[in-house]
Amino acid sequence: MDCARIGLLSTTQHSPMTPQLTTRLPAVGTTVFTRMSQLAAQAGAVNLGQGFPDFGCERSLISAVNDAMLADFNQYPMMSGAPVLRQAIGTKIGALYGHAYNVDSEITVTAGATQALTTAILCCVHPGDEVIVIEPVYDSYVPAITLAGGVPVAVEMEVTATGYAVPWSKVAAAVNRKTRLIIINTPHNPTSTVLRAADLQALSDIVRGTEMLILSDEVYEHMVYEGHRHESVSRYPALAERAFVVSSFGKTYHVTGWKIGYVAAPAALMAEFRKVHQYNVFSVNTPMQHGIASYMADPTPYLDLPAFYQRKRDLFRDGLKKSRFELLPADGTYFQCVRYDKISTQTEAAFAEWLTTEIKVAAIPVSAFYQQGKESGIVRFCFAKQDNTLALALERLATV
Ligand code: PMP
Ligand code: GLN
């Protein structure tokens, strides 16, 4: 396009008249997921980096959304979400986790989990408040805490021969008068750790008698393997009474690009959440809400998800056993972490780039999930892929 002719500036030109901004997020660049996906595309690599399925969703889900559009569900929905969808979410949480959220005052539909997480942080973290995050930490939490003027306090998971674990005694030691919020994530991205009842008990012991709130990121709630139970915070009344619980339809229904999720919280917390939500997105697109609500009438798709992904996980793990990568446990999510110290001494970022450009399989360096970029010699692969995609990746990974 001839930008000069139509009076526009190209994206690389800067007008001397444009006022300078002081960044609110000095530490933020383009996310590792975007960068590795771009590199994978340039290199023609199999993209096991950014977490998204390379297969479609069920056609009946698409039909349900189309039907909603044709039925003229196309104007603003209620700010908190279409009642039918809030009802479907409430019914699901009740059936699976035994907590009866009030669907009018305690559930809000969001534009994906990222928006839910940021909105929850903005509504309860004030300047100077401390927020405990568990490292490795999902990339959106710390920038949201920073935007709110909060202070992230990282507690590192322990990495042992048998995998990652949350050291609750260190979490307890990090709590002080300024601690306002703790953010947990189960099943956990990137380590695939699934918190157990004992972990939730340890968390209860820490928050009891304090003013601390909990933000529980449960977007992989339906991806738990080996018969493990998803320990939703909503199962535990003593935790649920002070928690925002977040999930995402993108993960559950193989539609990461739809950007639709939800948050459940006690009415007093939700009232504050909605004050921010109302002037941030106001509401989430109507036909998808109606389409998803009718699709949710059948619980089979999410009840079948553990078996669906466990098969892929096992296929991927069995293949990797023939390589020089060392497998870490993967009890949940659609990620598999591996050690590569028998293959290379490179940093994780350099190794992931080399794998992408030379071996043609993209991965994510786990160091990107640490504020100080801790090196553990571990990268993350996503196995939410068609079997033939996994087979091609495994063939290549066996050569290193
Ligand atoms: N939390 C975690 C742990 C995630 O892995 C992701 C996305 N992969 C999100 C939140 C964001 O979900 P959404 O795409 O619905 O915003
Ligand atoms: N959550 C996805 C992952 O961990 C990426 C989502 C994104 O690109 N923002 O790979």
TrEMBL record:
Q: Which SUPFAM superfamilies match?
A: PLP-dependent transferases
Keyword Transferase: yes or no?
Answer: yes
Give a single Pfam family match: Aminotran_1_2
* Listed cofactors: pyridoxal 5'-phosphate
Q: Which UniProt keywords apply?
A: Aminotransferase, Pyridoxal phosphate, Transferase
All residue ranges annotated as the Aminotransferase class I/classII large domain in the record: 46-397
Which domain of life, per UniProt? Bacteria
Instruction: Spell out the molecular function terms from Gene Ontology.
Output: transaminase activity
**PANTHER family from the UniProt entry:** FI04487P
Q: What is this protein called?
A: Aminotransferase class I/II-fold pyridoxal phosphate-dependent enzyme
